[in-house]
Fold:
Amino acid sequence: MTKTSRHIPVMLDEVLMYLAPKDGEVYVDATFGNGGYSEAILKTANCKVIALDRDPSVKSRADELKETYGSKFEFRAGTFGNIADLIKETVHGVVFDIGVSSMQLDDGFRGFSFAKEAPLDMRMSMSGISAKDIVNTYGEKELADLIYLYGEERKSRQIAAKIVEYRAKKEIETTTELAGIIYQVMPKHSGLIDPATRTFQAIRIAVNNELQELENGLVGAKERLCADGRLVVVDFHSLEDRIVKNFFSQNSEKKVHISRYNKDFALPDTGKAFAFVSKAITPTEVECALNPRARSAKLRYAIKRKELNNE
Structure:
């Protein structure tokens, strides 16, 4: 990735506002990608950033930041689902940008996009089971359930049946080949969302075990945050956002109305991790106009209780 091919990270101003980087503190960019958040945090405060990513293609970009920022920047290879193992130190803030990155979508060779002819791959780590393996080996019901569960696609059974029918004649090898099969069930119409979107999303999530990684990552980040530390998450679809919303809700105090006339009332100490969790925050109209990929984004953040210590 060259210095001239930068992508603008989604909701960058809001991430910096709610992460609130300070001098001398340590932050984790759990989804390094092209390094947009990492670089912005380092420019905002005289702090240290530890970046994580499972995609080996980001190494050259990580090397650039290391050359510029020296000991203030450190890259550790691995999935953010293993954040508790990758990060042993206590940190002041963690940021996640969930889902496929812009550079992965734009790299046609990776097979994430149905708009570009490429081998069916979709592996963020470039290892393990691929999209090609899934579409050519899963049973019809298994495929239908996967497409419905992870893609929320109402025509999942028809699409799965069409995939099985097609692969009986030949193996499905490319992105455009799979997209063409989907179009037999759901024809494309100008101006509408591409019918292949949900199925490709579902297969990508399955290939990378994304939802389980997110659940594990949130738990690990909570464990590594210091008292008063901040956790910021940007996600892009309802399945991710539901996980983030539920995690924050389950780990925060429920709001209790206290009468100003009751001087003796005390809140129970439930031991919940977060003192504050935000509602969903969405991008500005200006950002959505400049960067269409921001349109579906939601940001949520939480602040850890001051009286809690990490164990």
